[in-house]
């Protein structure tokens, strides 16, 4: 009974959050897609690394895993005086960041494990104009977020045409969007919606890799483990039959 109570104590809040949160768009990340990971690393270093560190991984490990030559990594993706073997930190001081943004930007090494890739993908695509917020933007997935929309120049501005906290509504007959996040014609981005979605996918794919760099190695070793267990099962079964033959 105690075990059941503890289980529901943790499960119920997650179920309630999932049911009441903004609907998330689903994606399937691919750690084998090196081109996507390389583009994601480029987006991360250009738009995210100034505020967010990934201090639990090293530049050299990323370069080796993503097939990026070391000299290109240092020349194009390392914007500080850090060496190739250094951890991927930045110069942001938490105390000053808290004064500027209201909260220190979190480390993003494990964010894909904590939040989930669907959450990240939807979050980075649902910033919208909100004059009531200090940075002039808000977010559907993370209401009243303190983060500015650093990718505004790429995506362009979105307007929320729904009232209050209503989720976007679609006409069931025509499929047209009745209300929701719509592009602001006065502030267009440098990317088309399709290009921006692909860029965010690449970025999230990179963050997913960062949260578990050993994912492919774990999957490869898992096959050998299962094969070993299968072989051991046969040996254990034959040994059991030998021990119990006199009893039967």
From the N-terminal CA to the C-terminal CA, the straight-line distance is: 39 Å
By DSSP (H or I, 4+ residues per run), the number of helices equals: 10
Largest sheet, strands/sense/barrel: 2 strands, antiparallel
Principal-axis shape equals globular
**How many distinct domains?**
2
What strand order characterises the main sheet?
1-2
Low-confidence stretches: 1-19
- Which radius of gyration do the C-alpha atoms yield? 24 Å
The portion of residues assigned to helices is 40-55%
CATH architecture of the largest domain: Orthogonal Bundle
Fold and architecture overview:
The protein is globular and about 85 Å long. It has helices at 2-20, 34-47, 59-65, 70-76, 94-101, 111-115, 117-123, 152-155, 193-211, 215-244, and strands at residues 54-58, 87-88, 127-129, 137-139, 156-160, 169-170, 177-179, 181-188. The protein is 48% helix and 12% strand. The chain has two domains: 23-213, Cytochrome Bc1 Complex, Chain D, domain 2; 219-248. The longest helix has 30 residues, at 215-244. A hairpin with a 7-residue loop joins strand 3 and strand 4. The model is unreliable at 1-19 (pLDDT under 50). Helix 2 (34-47) packs across helix 9. The strands form four sheets. The protein has a two-stranded antiparallel ribbon with strand order 1-2. The chain has a two-stranded antiparallel sheet with strand order 3-4. Strands 5-8 form a two-stranded antiparallel ribbon.
